[in-house]
UniProtKB/TrEMBL annotation:
InterPro entries: UPF0047_YjbQ-like, YjbQ-like_sf. It comes from Mucilaginibacter paludis DSM 18603. SUPFAM superfamilies: YjbQ-like. Belongs to the UPF0047 family. It comes from the Bacteria. This is Secondary thiamine-phosphate synthase enzyme.
Length: 140
């Protein structure tokens, strides 16, 4: 069994849903050494998240942003946690709904994503800073 792990810093991205599949693959060339295995991508933050979805049409990512802004609005007077502004608590809620990691099978040295699938960084803050990802791949 081979196990590889890398930590990467993604440069600050604007609020929204961003494809990062290429950055993950570029960071972990060791995936090519694994015939059958698993790759986990974990984000070390509580106001951003990860998911897998449509990788071709950018309007899907815009619709994700629209939907989550409607579902988890800013400036709700019932929020107690607003230390860092009106997007603070909504960002935490969105991150919990979306999740902090994705797991992708590795098949014949490649991520076994579907034809139209890509890994999204879901940035829920207006001003976020860099984001850290821990990428772990293991298998035979």
């Amino acid at each position: 069994m081979k196990i590889h792990q890398q930590v990467i810093q993604l440069k600050e991205k604007r609020r929204g849903f961003h494809l990062i599949t290429g950055e993950v693959i570029h960071t972990m060339p060791q995936i090519a050494e694994i015939k059958t295995g698993i790759c986990q991508v974990f984000i070390q933050h509580t106001s951003a998240s990860l998911t897998i979805n449509e990788n071709a049409d950018p309007t899907v990512r815009k619709d994700f942003e629209m939907y989550f802004n409607k579902a988890v609005p800013e400036n709700d007077p019932d929020y107690l946690h607003d230390d860092e502004g009106p997007d603070d608590m909504p960002a935490h809620l969105k991150a919990s709904l979306m999740g902090s990691s994705v797991t992708i099978p590795i098949r014949n040295g490649r991520l076994a994503l579907g034809t139209w699938q890509g890994i999204y960084l879901c940035e829920h803050r207006d001003y976020s800073g860099n984001r850290s990802l821990v990428i772990t791949a293991w298998g035979e």
